[in-house]
Predict the structure.
Amino acid sequence: MKIVFIGDLFVRSTIFQEAWEQQLGPLLGNVTLLMREVNWPDVPVTHNDEIKEFVGDPGEIAELVRDSQVIVTHVAPISKAAISAAPDLQIIACCRGGPVNINVPAATARKIPVVNSPGRNSQAVVEFTLGLIIAECRGISRAHGALSQGVWQGELYRYDKAGRELKGQTIGLVGFGIIARMLVPYLKTFGMRILAYDPYVPAAQFARQGVEQTDLSTLLQASDIVSVHARLTSETQGMIGAREFTRMKPGAYFINTARGPLVDYEALCAALQSGHLGGAGLDTLALEPPPADWPLLKLDNVTLTPHIAGSSRESAQRGVQTVLGDIANFYAGKPLRNRVNPPGPPTNAVR
């Protein structure tokens, strides 16, 4: 049996090797294990008409996985050509939540299960979001930036320049999926009032967590901090624009650790430049990486990070362990926990 693992500079081959020996080595025994790494995140992801958010040459990857039975990837491209190059392919695993770098329809047509690792970086994103909220509300990054340039801003202790404590403030969560729900206990620890908007979540879920369910307009108007956690779909793309920023409280803060295209960044820039918003903390941008002359890069009331909210060592390890668990389930004839495509006739027999 030939198993191909294509990692990168985040999901390393060493992580895979260790997890493989612990989880699958005893089950599958002697196999041919081929490991490679692409240069993500040093090289940004790209897209084509077939798949998205990948790094690596699709043709080279197709040749690499030729005649394999198992493919495990993170951001490497698994195209229709790659799937076709492996006529005995039995399962494809992707160590991320959204396997957009895999041609899932092509795998489905072959009745090949595709498994992923949903929520593998949720804890990392929750902690990062909280950090970004605190950094922005208290001006930590701006104070550091000035001091690193030799400027002592003692005037930041003036009342009109002082930041605000989280306790007693109202935060609005746009989207109430797993990350927003995991964030709630941390926000409650700070004594915050929590509003949330998500038309696809049952009212009982908000009630269970002691969160006030509301519509988007009310959330924007009532919140001192607005944090975005929605999924990116055709419906949600650009959902936060000029009208929404106008509805926000004067001096409010805007946080986005979800996806850049959810937000109209030109409108956000205008709201920040005018002073209507107090500040913004952004980990995801409209274009990544942004152009050097992007206006938001020049504003002093913005904290920007390069899409790293999910980049904890634990999330890399968790992604590998999760998909290997489903590969073990596959070869043990057990149900797959995280299959993303419809099941076909059983094919999970060791060859």
Remarks:
- Residues 346-351 have pLDDT under 50 and may be disordered.
- The longest strand covers residues 2-7.
- The two ends are 7 Å apart (CA to CA).
